[in-house]
Design a protein that fits this description.
The complex is a heterotrimer of chains A (about 350), B (about 450) and C (about 300). Chain A is mainly alpha-helical. Chain A has helices spanning about 15, 25-45, 45-70, 80-95, 105-120, 130-150, 180-200, 205-215, 215-220, 225-250, 260-275, 280-305, 310-330, 335-350, and strands at about 165, 170, 175, 255. In chain A, about 50% of the residues are buried. The chains are: A mainly alpha (about 350), B alpha/beta (about 450), C mainly alpha (about 300). The interface between A and C is large, with 49 and 51 residues.
C-alpha cells in the first residue's frame, strides 16, 4: 500500500537507471543518512561508538570488498586478513616515512599497495578454481603474517613488530574523539559503497557475475577471464586494504600482525555469506550480525542478572554463534540480503495477498 | 514561583548530594582474563589469584574501608576483544582504577586510549619496554619488571654459571621465541649483551600459537647451542619442553622467561622436564607464604575461593595475587595523599602507582615476606625494582636455584631512554618536567 | 648428510601425521561433498573426550589399571563421535542437501565454533594428558655411519606406523566392502545413489562416524605429543595444504600429499629458513601446495574438474 510505484514514471534513461528508482526508497535513504550522520553521533554513547559502530563501519567496508570478490566474481578467498594487513602497514609506512602526508592519501596508498599484492595472489585463480583456490589463498594469509613479523622495513624497524600512529587529522581537523572517528569511517564507507554499487551495476560487474555463474560460457562469448578475475581481485583488495588501514589507524591505533590473522579472514567470510553473496546490502547486514552478536551474547547473562563465570559465558557465545550460523544457513542459504529483498517484495503487495 | 523554583533546585541538589553519598564506596578494578582459548591453561590460575586477592582485601575490611568491586571480561588473548572489554569496563562502577591487559597486544592497543581516558595500565612483567620511563609513559606501569630485565638477568645468571661473563665468549645461546611482539621484545637486550661479551645469539622464531616446533628443535640439535632461552606463552612452553625431550636437548640448559616457568608448562611432562629452569618474577611457587595461608583459611576453607584449592600457591596464581596486590597498594598509597577511606579517581590512583613505596615492613604486614623484594616507583622509574631470580623444576615442584640478580642499569637505562624517545616522537608527546612529576 | 637424513625422516613421519588428519577431510568430502572445516574441532573434541574419560572412568568405576582405562576411554570416545556424527547429520546436513559448496563450508565452520565451545564447556580448557604408552625418548640409529647418529623420534615412528595401518584399513574398507561401495556411489552422485535405493542419511552418518574415528586416532596421537588443549584444533590448518595437494577426493593423495608437505616443510624450515629469518614453515607448505596446484589444478590425485557449459 505504501510501497507501490504507482504514478512514478521515468521520462529519460538517466532517471530509469538510478540506484533507487522508487521514491520511497529514496526517502528511506535520506532518512537513513540523516540518522547515521546526525542523530547517531549526537546521541550514541562513546562506548557504543567505539566498540560497536566504528568496528561495524570498518568491517562492513572490508566485507564489501570481499563480497565483490566472492559474491560477484565467485572466487573464494580466505586471505582477506592479509590484504587488510598490507593496507594497514603500507598506510603506516607512507604516513610515518613521508612527513606531512595527508591521512586520506596514506590510506588510499595503502589500498594501492594492497591492490598490487592482491593481484599477485590472484594470479593462481586463473588456473585454480573453487575450494582449491580458497585454500591456496591461505598461502597469502600466512605469508603476509610472516612478512609483517620478519621484514623489518614493513614495521619501520620496530623491534617488537608492533606499530602505532597518532595525531591523525584531516586538513587540520583532528580525528581523535569517537564521534570524529565515527564520521571519518562513515564517510569512507559511504563513498566506497556508492563506488562499488556503480561498479557492479556496470559492464565490469556483469563480467564478474558472468564469470561467477559459468566461466567457460563467459569465455566463449568473449569475456576475458584474465581481465575479469584480476580486476575483481584488484578492486576487492583495494577496498579491503583501505579498510585495513582504517582498522589499524582509527579503531586500534596501535597494532601487531596478529590483528589481521586468519580469524579475521574467517570472520569476514562469515559476514559475506551470512549477509548475502553478491549483494552490497548484504555486506552491511553480515557485518552488523557478526559484530554485534558476540557482544550481545556476552552481555546477555548480565542483563538477565544471571551470574555466569566468564569462561562459561565465552563458551556459550561460541556455541550460540556457531548454532546461529548453521541455523541461518539452513533457513536462508542466500543470506540476510535475500530475506530483506523478499520482505521488500512482500511489502510492495501488502496488504493485498497477490 | 521563584521560591518554588529555588525549593525545587535545592531539593534536586540535596537528592544529588545524597545520591552521590549513597553511592556505595567502591573502588572498581576491571579484570581482563582469558579462561578460554589456546592460552587458557596459563590464564586461569592468574585470574583466580587476581580475584582471590580482592576477596581477601574485602574480607580484611577493604582499602581502609573502601570496598573493592571487580568484573572479569574474557579476552581470549585477542586484541580486539581486549579493546572491547576496555571500552566496556572503563566507565563502569564509577570508573576503572587501573587495567591489567595481561597481553602485550592488548597493551599496545589500549595504551594511548588509557592516556586519553586517564586510567593507569599496569603491566607487571610484560608490556612495552620503554614504559619504564614514566616521564613519557605517564599512565603505564610495568611494576616489578619487563622483558629487558628478564633477558639481562638470564644472561647474568648464565654468565655466573660459566664462571664469569667473560667466559661467555665464543659460546652459543639460542632464543626460541613466540613470533609476536611478546617474543621479540627481548631481542635488543640479548643482542646488546652478545656484542658486549662475544657470544653468538641464534634466533629461532616459533609461529603462534607454537604447536609446531619440530623443525626448531632439529635446528637446535644441529647447532648444539650451549644454552636455550625459551620465550613462550601458553601451550608453546610445554610443546618446547616436550620437543627438547624428544630431540635429547638437556633441560638443565634451558632457561625460560617468567612467563615460561609455571606448573601448566611442566606438570604434564613431570620427570621429563626435570632440570628445566625459568625466571621467577620476584615470586616463585610459594605454598608457605603467609598470604597463601590466609587465603586458604579465610576463603577456601569457607568455600569462597576462586578456583581449586590445589592451585593456591602455584606460580601463576601467585603472579595474579601479586598483580592484584600492586593494584590495591597503589590505591592505598593514593589514599594517603588524597584522603584515607575515600574512593580514588583514576588520576589519584595514578599518583599512587607512581609513588609506591613497599618496604619490607609493609610486605611483611601484607603477608608477602619472602615472596617479593621491597620496591619503590617514581616518575623516572615506573618499574620499581629490577631484581629477579631463577627457579628450577625438580619433577614435582619449583625450587629456587639462584640468588637475587639485579639487571644492569648501565645497559638498560640508555636502551629504555631510546625506546621511550622513539615512542614520544611517534605519538608527539613531550617529556614531563620534574615539576610535573611532583604533582 | 646425517642431519639431512634426520630432517628427511622427521619430515616423513610428521607428514604421515598430517595425512591422518587430512584423511578425515578426504573421507567426508568424498562421501558427502562437504569440505569439513570442522575436522580440527572434531580432532580436538575427540581427543578431549578420550583424555577426560581416561581420567573419569577409573574414578567412576573405582579401578586403577591404566590399559583398561585407556581401552574404555577409547570406546567411550568412539561412542561420543558417533553421537556427534548423528547429530550433525540430523540437524545440519539433512537440511543443506544440494546447497552450494560455500554454504556447506560455512555450515561446517559454524559446527566448528559450536564444537569448540561445547567441548570446552563439557571437558574444560586446561591442558589434559593422553598417555597411551607411546615412548617419549628419542632413539639414535646409524651411530657408526654418521657422527652423532640419526635421531628418530620413537613416538613419531609409532604414530606413522599406526597411520599407515589405518590408511590401509580404510582403503580396504572402501574397495572391498558393500558399505564402501555405497559410500563411493554417494560421492559420485547423490541423486543417482538415492534413486537406486542407497539411504543417503545413513550413509552420511557412517561417513561422519568413520571420519570421527579417524579424528579420534589423530587426536590421540597428536594429543599424546602436544597435550590436549584448544590449540590442537589448529593442527587442522596444517593438514589443509595436504588435502589440496593430494586432491580433495583421493585417499592415497592424502598420504602422498602428507609426505610431500611434511618433508618440504621441514627441509625448507631448516635449510631455507635461517636465510629468511626463520618461521617460514607454515606459509611454505601452502606455497608448495599452490605451486603443485598450478600444474595440476585438481591436486595430484584428485578428480579432474569437468565444467559443463
Amino acid at each position: 500500500m505504501l510501497y507501490r510505484e504507482n504514478g512514478q514514471f521515468k521520462s529519460n534513461y538517466r532517471s530509469d537507471q538510478q540506484i533507487f528508482p522508487i521514491l520511497q526508497d529514496r526517502i528511506a535513504m535520506v532518512a537513513l543518512l540523516a540518522l547515521v550522520l546526525v542523530i547517531v553521533p549526537m546521541t550514541a554513547s562513546p562506548y557504543l561508538l567505539t566498540a560497536i559502530f566504528i568496528p561495524f563501519l570498518i568491517l562492513s567496508l572490508a566485507a564489501l570488498g570481499l563480497n565483490i570478490l566472492v559474491g560477484y566474481c565467485g572466487q573464494i578467498s580466505l586471505g582477506t586478513g592479509a590484504f587488510m594487513a598490507v593496507g594497514a602497514y603500507a598506510a603506516y609506512n607512507v604516513q610515518t616515512r613521508i612527513d606531512g602526508m595527508p591521512l586520506i592519501a596514506s590510506l588510499l596508498l595503502g589500498g594501492v599497495a594492497s591492490t598490487a599484492v592482491g593481484v599477485l595472489f590472484g594470479v593462481p585463480s586463473l588456473r585454480i578454481k573453487g575450494l582449491y583456490l580458497a585454500v591456496a589463498t591461505l598461502a597469502a594469509q600466512f605469508f603476509v603474517d610472516w612478512a609483517c613479523l620478519r621484514l623489518g622495513w614493513v614495521t619501520n624497524g620496530s623491534s617488537s613488530g608492533s606499530v602505532s600512529v597518532a595525531g591523525l587529522n584531516v586538513l587540520g581537523l583532528p580525528i581523535e574523539s569517537p564521534v570524529q572517528k565515527y564520521l571519518f569511517a562513515l564517510v569512507f564507507l559511504a563513498v566506497f559503497a556508492l563506488l562499488a554499487k556503480n561498479l557492479v551495476r556496470g559492464a565490469i560487474g556483469r563480467e564478474w557475475m558472468a564469470i561467477r555463474d559459468m566461466d567457460v560460457a563467459a569465455a566463449v562469448i568473449g569475456i576475458r577471464p584474465v581481465y575479469a578475475k584480476l580486476t575483481a581481485f584488484a578492486v576487492s583488495s583495494f577496498i579491503v586494504g583501505v579498510a585495513g588501514g582504517l582498522w589499524g589507524f582509527i579503531h586500534l591505533g596501535s597494532w601487531e600482525p596478529a590483528a589481521f590473522n586468519i580469524d579475521r579472514s574467517f570472520q569476514l567470510l562469515f559476514m559475506v555469506i551470512i549477509g548475502g553473496l553478491g549483494s552490497i546490502m548484504g555486506s552491511f547486514f553480515g557485518a552488523a550480525f557478526i559484530v554485534v552478536l558476540p557482544i550481545l551474547l556476552d552481555g546477555l547473562p548480565y542483563w538477565f542478572g544471571i551470574p555466569i563465570d566468564t569462561a562459561l559465558a565465552s563458551h556459550l557465545t561460541f556455541m550460540i554463534f556457531g548454532a546461529l550460523i548453521v541455523f541461518f544457513l539452513i533457513v536462508e542459504p542466500h543470506g540476510i540480503a535475500r530475506l530483506w529483498s523478499t520482505a521488500k517484495e512482500k511489502l510492495r503487495l501488502w496488504p493485498f495477498p497477490h | 514561583m521563584k521560591s518554588l523554583k529555588s525549593l525545587a533546585l535545592a531539593a534536586t541538589l540535596m537528592a544529588a548530594a545524597t545520591g552521590a553519598f549513597a553511592q556505595a564506596k567502591e573502588q572498581f578494578f576491571p579484570s581482563l582474563v582469558y579462561r578460554t582459548g589456546a592460552y587458557a591453561p596459563n590464564g586461569v590460575p592468574f585470574a583466580n589469584g587476581f580475584a582471590d586477592y580482592f576477596k581477601l582485601v574485602n574480607a580484611r575490611g577493604g582499602i581502609n574501608g573502601v570496598n573493592i568491586v571487580w568484573e572479569e571480561c574474557e579476552t581470549g588473548y585477542a586484541t580486539d576483544r581486549g579493546v572491547e572489554c576496555y571500552e566496556r569496563l572503563k566507565g563502569k562502577h564509577g570508573g576503572a582504577t587501573s587495567f591489567q591487559p595481561l597481553s602485550t597486544g592488548i597493551t599496545l592497543a589500549v595504551t594511548d586510549k588509557a592516556a586519553a581516558d586517564k586510567v593507569s595500565i599496569l603491566t607487571p612483567g610484560y608490556g612495552i619496554s620503554g614504559s619504564m620511563d614514566g616521564a613519557i609513559f605517564k599512565w603505564s606501569f610495568p611494576i616489578t619488571g619487563m622483558y629487558w630485565v628478564a633477558g639481562d638477568v638470564l644472561i647474568q645468571h648464565i654468565g655466573k654459571k660459566e664462571g664469569g661473563l667473560d667466559k661467555l665468549k665464543g659460546k652459543k645461546i639460542a632464543l626460541v621465541y613466540h613470533d609476536s611482539p611478546y617474543g621479540k621484545e627481548v631481542i635488543p637486550v640479548l643482542q646488546e649483551r652478545a656484542k658486549m661479551h662475544g657470544f653468538e645469539l641464534q634466533l629461532l622464531p616459533v609461529t603462534a600459537p607454537g604447536v609446531e616446533q619440530k623443525a626448531t628443535w632439529l635446528q637446535v640439535r644441529q647447532s648444539k647451542p650451549d644454552y636455550v632461552l625459551l620465550w613462550g606463552w601458553g601451550v608453546m612452553n610445554s610443546t618446547a619442553i616436550k620437543e627438547a625431550l624428544a630431540t635429547g636437548y638437556p633441560r638443565e640448559k634451558m632457561y625460560g622467561v617468567w612467563w615460561a616457568g609455571a606448573e601448566p608448562d611442566v606438570k604434564d611432562i613431570g620427570d621429563g622436564a626435570k632440570g628445566y629452569n625459568a625466571l621467577a618474577l620476584q615470586h616463585g611457587a610459594e605454598p608457605n607464604a603467609k598470604v597463601v595461608q590466609e587465603i586458604l583459611k579465610e576463603l577456601h576453607a569457607k568455600g569462597q575461593g576462586t578456583g581449586p584449592k590445589e592451585e593456591v600457591g602455584q606460580v601463576l596464581y601467585m603472579r595474579g595475587l601479586m598483580s592484584a596486590m600492586l593494584a590495591v597498594e597503589g590505591v592505598k598509597r593514593a589514599q594517603e595523599r588524597f584522603g584515607k577511606g575515600k574512593v580514588m579517581t583514576g588520576e589519584q590512583a595514578r599518583w599512587g602507582y607512581e609513588n609506591l613505596a613497599l618496604d619490607q615492613k609493609k610486605l611483611d604486614a601484607l603477608g608477602f615476606a619472602g615472596v617479593m623484594r621491597p620496591l619503590s616507583t617514581s616518575c623516572a622509574d615506573h618499574m620499581g625494582v629490577a631484581w629477579a631470580r631463577v627457579h628450577t623444576w625438580d619433577g614435582a615442584k619449583w625450587n629456587f636455584t639462584s640468588d637475587w640478580l639485579q639487571a644492569d642499569e648501565q645497559i638498560l637505562k640508555p636502551m629504555v631512554k631510546v625506546a621511550a624517545e622513539k615512542y614520544a616522537s611517534e605519538k608527539k608527546l613531550t617529556r614531563r618536567t620534574p615539576a610535573e612529576c611532583q604533582s | 648428510m646425517g642431519f639431512f637424513l634426520e630432517t628427511l625422516f622427521g619430515g616423513l613421519m610428521v607428514g604421515m601425521l598430517y595425512s591422518l588428519i587430512a584423511l578425515g577431510f578426504v573421507l567426508i568430502y568424498k562421501a558427502s561433498g562437504v569440505f569439513n572445516f570442522a575436522q580440527g574441532a572434531m580432532v580436538l573434541f575427540a581427543a578431549m573426550a578420550m583424555a577426560r574419560f581416561y581420567e573419569w572412568i577409573p574414578k567412576w568405576f573405582g579401578f586403577d589399571n591404566k590399559i583398561l582405562a585407556n581401552v574404555l576411554a577409547f570406546a567411550a570416545a568412539i561412542l561420543v563421535m558417533i553421537a556427534v556424527a548423528w547429530v550433525i547429520e540430523r540437524l545440519v546436513l539433512r537440511h543443506l542437501v544440494n546447497q552450494e559448496h560455500i554454504t556447506l563450508l560455512m555450515a561446517t565452520l559454524g559446527i566448528a565454533y559450536f564444537l569448540e565451545g561445547f567441548g570446552q564447556t563439557l571437558f574444560g580448557s586446561d591442558i589434559y594428558k593422553i598417555d597411551v604408552g607411546l615412548p617419549k625418548d628419542p632413539v639414535l640409529v646409524f651411530e657408526s655411519l654418521f657422527q652423532g647418529g640419526i635421531l628418530i623420534n620413537k613416538e613419531d615412528l609409532y604414530a606413522a606406523v599406526i597411520a599407515a595401518v589405518l590408511v590401509a584399513l580404510l582403503a580396504l574398507f572402501f574397495q572391498k566392502t558393500a558399505t564402501g561401495r555405497a559410500l563411493r556411489a554417494v560421492a559420485d552422485d547423490h541423486q543417482a545413489a538415492q534413486s537406486i535405493g542407497i539411504p543417503l542419511g545413513r550413509i552420511w552418518i557412517i561417513v561422519w562416524s568413520v571420519a570421527g574415528f579417524v579424528a579420534l586416532v589423530a587426536g590421540v596421537i597428536w594429543g599424546s605429543k602436544l597435550g590436549v588443549q584448544f590449540s590442537l584444533s589448529l593442527v587442522a590448518l596444517k593438514a589443509l595444504p595436504v588435502v589440496i595437494l593430494g586432491g580433495l577426493t583421493s585417499v592415497p593423495g592424502a598420504i602422498i600429499g602428507g609426505l610431500i608437505i611434511g618433508v618440504g616443510e621441514k627441509l625448507s624450515e631448516i635449510y631455507i629458513g635461517p636465510k629468511l629469518g626463520g618461521g617460514i614453515e607454515i606459509w611454505f607448505a601452502y606455497v608448495l601446495a599452490l605451486v603443485f596446484l598450478l600444474v595440476r589444478p585438481q591436486g595430484l590425485f584428485g578428480e579432474k574438474i569437468i565444467d559443463r557449459v
